[in-house]
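Project standup — Tuesday

K.O.: blocked on the structure for the chain from last sprint. Re-posting the sequence here as requested.
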Amino acid sequence: MLFHVHMTVNIPLDLDKDYVEGLKTKEKALSQELQRQGKWTHIWRIAGQYANISIFNVASAGELHDILMSLPLYPFMDVEVTALCQHYSSIKNEEEAH
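H.V.: unblocked you, prediction finished:
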C-alpha cells in the first residue's frame, strides 16, 4: 500500500540541544534504513521548515502506523496521511484501447 505522508516537526525551543541532536541522529539513521528497504521515499523537504513530504510503500496501514510511532521525533510531529492507489494514466488506457 502506498501512503503520502506530510510530516512537520515542531521541536520546543526549551529542549536540551544535545538531546535534540541525539533524536535527529537516530531519526536520520532510521530514515536511511527504511529508504534502503524501499519503504520510505523522501519526495522533497519543504523550504524554510523542518518538514518533508514522503511516500511510504508498506504492507498495511498498521505497518505505517508502527513505523511512524517508532520515529524518534514522532512526539514532536504533526502528521497528515493520505492513502494512495495505483492506477493507469488516461494515456495508457487510451493506448490499450487501440
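K.O.: great, moving the ticket to review. The mean pLDDT is 87. The CA atoms of residues 15 and 21 lie 10 Å apart.
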